[in-house]
Amino acid sequence: MATSDEESLWSATAAPLAPFPALRDAVRAQVTVIGAGYTGLSAALHLGEAGRDVIVLDAMDVGDGASGRNGGQVIPGLKFDPDTLEGMFGSDLGARLVATVGAGADLVFELIRRHGIACEPVRSGWLQLATSEGALGPIGTRVRQWRARGAAVELLSEADAARLTGSRRYYGGLIDHRGGTVQPLAYVRGLAGAAQRAGVRLFTHSAATHIERSGGGWRIRTRGGVVSCGQVVFATNAYSDQFVEPLQRTIVAVPSMQVATAPLPPDLRRAILPEGQSVSDTWRLLRYFRMNAEGRLIMGSRGVFGDAPAVRAARLHYRAVREIYPQLSGIAFEYHWSGFVAMTPDHLPHLHDVAPGIVAGLGYNGRGVAMATTMGTLLARRLLGEDAEALGFPVTPVRPMRLHRFSRFGAGAAIQSLRVLDGVARLAERLTRRRRTM
C-alpha cells in the first residue's frame, strides 16, 4: 500500500495559495483575529466587509489545523435534536439557536458562490445511516423534528440506503438535503483570499505569545512584531495553546484520522455513493465517508492518542472501508493523515465574551465546516455591537474543566472503551443479519 504521513489528500490537490508574510513590525488595527481557520477567517471576512481594519495572525499557514485536514462534510445543525435544544435553552433562544445552526450549510455554500471559491462544492445531501435496527428510532425522531421546522430532511429505507451508498451494511437512515461536501483546504484558502480582498491583512508563522491591556485596547506580541488593537477574536479551537490557556481548558483535543483510496475504477465509482452524498453512521465511534472529485473514497473516524505509528492506526480505517465495501478489497490506499477535533463536555460549541473587547468561539464536536463558519459570523456581529440576546446563539462565560490535564488520558481510555463496545456491537449485528437471511 502506498501511503503518505506527510501530505494529506487535501494538501496534494488544493490549488496553492500565495504565501502570507510573517509579522515583523509594530502595527495597528481595529481588530486582531488569532487563528486563520474557518472561524477566524469567517469573522475577519465579515468584519472586513463591514469596514473594520482587521489583522489575522496564525502560528502556522492558513488551514494547517483542523480547517484544512477535516473530512469536508458540510452538515447543518448540531448533534442534539431541535426539541432537545429548545428544552435546554428555552423556547425563544432555543428556537433561534436551532434556526442559526440549521442555516450553517446555507452560509457555507453562499460564501462559496459569492466569492467564487474553487473548492469542489457538491450539495447533494448528507446521510446519517443506522448501523442497527435500534438506531432507526432516534433517526426517525430527528427527521420528524427537523421537518416540523421546514427542513428538507427525509427518512431512508434499508433499500434506499443500499442504493445511495452501494453498501448493504445499513438498516436505513435519513438524508438531509441541506448538506454537502467541499475540499476543506481549498475552502479555507478561498476564505483567506476573500478576506484579503475585503482589506484584511494576514500574517502567518506569527504565533501570538503575549497579550496585555494597552490604554483602552490590547497589545498582542508575536516573536517578530506587535499588534495594537481595540478588539480581539480568539479562533484557535482544537489548536489552542498556553497563550489562551483558560480557553484551552474548556475543550479536549481528540485525534481524528482519515484515509483515502486510489481513484476507483469506473464501475465501482458508479456503484459507490453514485449521487455524491456524504455519510456518517451511528457507531459509538462514528465513521464518516465520501467520494471526492477524483473518485477516491475517503473514510474517517477517531484516531489514536500517543505515539502509535500512524500506519498502524490507519489499518483500523482500512478494515472499516473493506467492512462497508467488500468490493474494494483489491483497491490500494494512497493517503492517510490526522488532526485534532475540539470536543466539549456538553457536546455544544461555545461563544464566549472573554474580556472587554475580546470574544472567542470554539468546540465544534466534529461539525466544524458549517458550524465554525457560522461562529465566525456570530463573533463578527458581536464585535460590531450586536446585543448578546439578538445573536440567536448563547453567549457563555469561560468555564475551564477541572483536572483538565488528565483529560487526554480520560479521552484516550474512553475512545478505546467505545472501540471495544463497537466491536462487540458489530459482532451482534453480523449475527442478526445472518439470522435474517436464514
Topology:
Elements: H1 9-13, E1 26-28, E2 31-34, H2 38-49, E3 54-57, E4 73-74, H3 82-89, H4 91-102, H5 104-115, E5 126-129, H6 136-148, E6 153-156, H7 158-165, E7 173-176, E8 180-181, H8 184-197, E9 201-203, E10 208-214, E11 217-222, E12 226-229, E13 231-234, H9 245-248, E14 252-261, H10 266-271, E15 278-281, E16 288-291, E17 297-302, H11 310-324, E18 333-343, E19 350-355, E20 358-362, H12 368-383, E21 395-396, H13 407-437
Parallel strand pairs: 1-12, 2-3, 2-13, 3-9, 5-15, 13-20, 19-21
Antiparallel strand pairs: 4-8, 5-7, 6-7, 10-11, 11-12, 14-17, 14-18, 15-16, 16-17, 19-20
Helix pairs in contact: 2-8, 2-12, 3-4, 5-12
Give a structural overview:
- By secondary structure, this protein is α/β, with parallel strands linked by helices.
- Helices cover 36% and strands 23% of the residues.
- It contains 13 helices and 21 strands.
- The protein has helices at residues 9-13, 38-49, 82-89, 91-102, 104-115, 136-148, 158-165, 184-197, 245-248, 266-271, 310-324, 368-383, 407-437; strands at 26-28, 31-34, 54-57, 73-74, 126-129, 153-156, 173-176, 180-181, 201-203, 208-214, 217-222, 226-229, 231-234, 252-261, 278-281, 288-291, 297-302, 333-343, 350-355, 358-362, 395-396.
- The strands form 4 sheets. The chain has an 8-stranded mixed sheet, with helices on both faces.
- Helix 2 (38-49) runs parallel beside helix 12 (368-383) and helix 3 (82-89) crosses helix 4 (91-102).
- The longest helix is centred in the C-terminal third of the chain and has 31 residues, at 407-437.
- Residues 1-5 have low confidence and may be disordered.
